[in-house]
Amino acid sequence: MISTPEILIVILFAGLVIGMLIGFPVPFVMLGVSMVVGFMGVGYGFFPMMILRVFETMQNYILIAIVLFVFMGIMLEHSGAAERLFNSLHILLGGLRGGLALAVVVVCTIMAAATGIMGAPVIIMGLFALPEMLKRGYDKALSSGTICAGGTLGILIPPSIMLVVYGPMAGLSVGKLFMGAVIPGLLLSFLYVVFIIVKCYLNPELGPALPPEQRTLPAGKKLMMIVTSLLPTLLLIFAVLGTIFFGIAAPTEAAAVGAFASLLLAWAYRRLDWATLKSAVYRTLVVSSMILLIVAAAFVFTGTFMLVGGGDLVKEWLLGLPVGRWGVLAVMACCFFIFGLFMEWVGIVPILVPIFAPVLAALHFNPLWAAILFCVVMQTSFLTPPMAPALFYIKGVASQELDFGQHIVRGAIPFIILQIIGVIMIALFPQLALWLPGIMIR
């Protein structure tokens, strides 16, 4: 056995990186290196810990919400709610410079609050909004950047699946995390809107307004479009977040309400049939199984890290840095950012959160505020290569129209800067993340 924590930690993380670079699935890499390092560090005593960690994941009641929220998001995707919203806002905002880009941001914000996932809004807007924007002469970089950035709001604005995973890892209430993420998520959406308005005002050719004849409809028809497209989705959002905010239901029960409401919405839009339901259940099984498998593997990985003394080592190192408590917080935020360049949030959260939680407590930072701050930092990972899943989603649905480097990556850069501005604002004004949880009815 090896008793030196430093050597074991190097082997643990080196094995993780090498395994991922070779191309092995993330959960199997985590489990494999954990077993090797655990056996090297503590011998056969490692295996009971591994079994207990896996069962801990299987018995975690909060994590049931992942399955339900994934199902809700997939059913909403099948219901056509996003397309209806975009068609309505297309008419209402099309008269403004950059109006279609503004419509994309609004639709993505609403869908984020109704789905809790990132991929669906990007793909849906890439299929329905992007061709319309390009046909109207919109700048390709602005169009792709807007869709990618708007879609990433789905991983922050509740009911975010990332927050469902983060809560148990940090010992925080998922309901409070949901409420804490509302204003930061809306803040990022507001920054996107302001950027689009200013950019298109200064250079109208980037986002020309629609001609009057293409957006003129009777007032009654406009009202009906708003009511039939916007109101049902808002009711779904209230069914989930409202029940949590007013203390009526816990996140898991609220997820069940949302899943049932998404079925009703698909039925109301005449998109619910046996084939749709079967497809939604199958996709839910695939997506949620992948997430829960990674969470279980990451639980074992973190447990191994702690078992060989890594937790104490990292805590002593961070607290010993000559940069002050805010400098240490910045180092931790940079760790989330760097991990995000190579790994999705579902692997980052279970690894880093249990390691950093004791350090945050020792530095007397509010753990809820720090959680929201770190989650906004992780959101940038969806736009920053080489991982950048949002960029590859939009490339997949628009492979012919957009060049990856010239249009997609260049279009994402301004929005990455806006996300960093959002991180700074949340760091400087903690009440952006703490006000709503403070007035939440328990």
Essential attributes:
442 residues, 20 helices, 78% helix, 0% strand
Give a topology summary.
Elements: H1 5-22, H2 26-42, H3 46-58, H4 64-79, H5 81-93, H6 99-115, H7 119-135, H8 140-152, H9 161-170, H10 174-202, H11 219-245, H12 251-268, H13 274-307, H14 310-319, H15 324-342, H16 345-362, H17 367-379, H18 389-397, H19 404-428, H20 431-439
Helix pairs in contact: 1-2, 2-13, 3-13, 4-12, 4-13, 5-6, 5-11, 6-7, 6-8, 6-10, 6-11, 7-8, 7-18, 8-18, 8-19, 9-16, 10-17, 10-19, 10-20, 11-12, 13-16, 14-16, 15-16, 15-17, 16-17, 17-19, 18-19
Short structural description:
This protein has 442 residues and is an all-alpha fold. Helices cover 78% and strands 0% of the residues.
Q: Please count the beta strands (DSSP E, at least 2 residues each).
A: 0
Proportion of strand residues: under 5%
- Please bin the fraction of helical residues: over 70%
Largest sheet, in brief, is:
none
Number of helices: 20
Taken together, the total number of domains comes to 1
Measured distance between first and last alpha carbons = 49 Å
Which residues sit in consecutive blocks of at least 5 with pLDDT less than 50? none
Mean pLDDT, to the nearest integer, reads 86
Based on CA atoms alone, the radius of gyration comes out at: 22 Å
* Global structural class: mainly alpha
Shape: globular
The topology string of helices and strands comes to HHHHHHHHHHHHHHHHHHHH
What does this structure look like?
By secondary structure, the chain is an all-alpha fold. It has 20 helices and no strands. The protein has one domain (5-439). It has helices spanning 5-22, 26-42, 46-58, 64-79, 81-93, 99-115, 119-135, 140-152, 161-170, 174-202, 219-245, 251-268, 274-307, 310-319, 324-342, 345-362, 367-379, 389-397, 404-428, 431-439. Helix 8 (140-152) packs across helix 19. It starts with a helix and ends with a helix. The model has no long low-confidence stretch (mean pLDDT 86).
